[in-house]
């Protein structure tokens, strides 16, 4: 037993000594590099974990954005489908009556206008013609009578108030515009209140029409009924010169915040809102102020369905020679009543336009004109000055009304130059027009 105890004690001492030696060597034999190694190792591992976490966050984010995109697309597709279905339903509603109101004064060349209105009219019942004559010009009245005598669906009414409009000296030169506004008020009240029509197509006596003029207004009429953000349909593209339009797309239509006039449809409902505030003069510019039309839009074609031959008019010949003379009248008949035009409804159009335009490459107006590159582009502008500079360079009209450039929709002006779509677009987040522009 004693012997065993000794043995055990010796054994324990030996083990303890060995353990001591080992501990000593692990603690004191080159301790610095080892600790550094450990710290470096730890840092490496932390770095690794951080990288892994970063990767995972990145993956989750991209997955999340994919899911969000898909959700948005599904929602958008559903809206598009719903609006398309609703649009088709609306289209199947019984045919409307769309009278054509011709605003006349003292031009005997109204014959040219009436000849075309009669020639292209597909259906007398749908499109009765009402001529309203101002100015008391007998020779013009005699021309009009040859049409009304020949066809009971063509009628004439005379604007009864031919009294002079007293104006202060500086305003006298604008008397014509006062008379026109007075005449429009009478003629529209006559069509809507006396005759009780629901809508009207307004034409001036110096306009030619395209062969598909009636088809255009009949086909687009459902848009006017369906979309409360649209108040007018116009046959006119203010930038409709050859060289600024896509001649291969006669079916293409656009929304615009700039009232184009020159052949347009107006609903009775809208007239009842406008009439109490109707201006004494410059009614067209008045209609271009968003305040008067509740910021609503018009529809306009890529290629105009009217052409103005009125060189001698109230605004004189300068505008005609500089501008109107070069407008392109559409030559290809489009069956608008058979087209689905739901892409023009606000809930479809606005997002589609902005996402298309802002995904395009940028190009300066100069580079567009020197044929740099190909395919659709966005020409950015930042203020009235840079807009006008670019518009001038591209050959577009560069004037504003109530801060709105001609043909603009939400600040974007679309045209077609040298075989490509060009969009003049704000390089800032557009919210509204600035009436101080222009
Ligand atoms: C311009 C516009 C026209 C707008 C008018 C009013 C163009 C190309 N034309 O007239 O669309 O309606 O400004 O701001 O942009 N008229 C009368 N009574 C008159 C004089 C004219 O009823 O005392 C009639 C004419 O018959 C015609 C219309 O008003 O139908 C416009 O007259 P016009 O002489 O053609 O003037 P624009 O300079 O073309
Ligand atoms: Mn005119």
From TrEMBL:
Its EC number is 2.4.1.101. Initiates complex N-linked carbohydrate formation. Essential for the conversion of high-mannose to hybrid and complex N-glycans. The cofactor is mostly bound to the substrate. This is Alpha-1,3-mannosyl-glycoprotein 2-beta-N-acetylglucosaminyltransferase. GO terms for molecular function: alpha-1,3-mannosylglycoprotein 2-beta-N-acetylglucosaminyltransferase activity; manganese ion binding. Gene3D superfamilies: N-Acetylglucosaminyltransferase I, Domain 2, Spore Coat Polysaccharide Biosynthesis Protein SpsA, Chain A. Residues 39-70 form a coiled coil. The keyword ATP-binding does not apply. InterPro entries: Glyco_trans_13, Glycosyltransferase_13, Nucleotide-diphossugar_trans. It is a single-pass type II membrane protein. Pathway: Protein modification; protein glycosylation. GO terms for biological process: protein N-linked glycosylation. The keyword Disulfide bond applies.
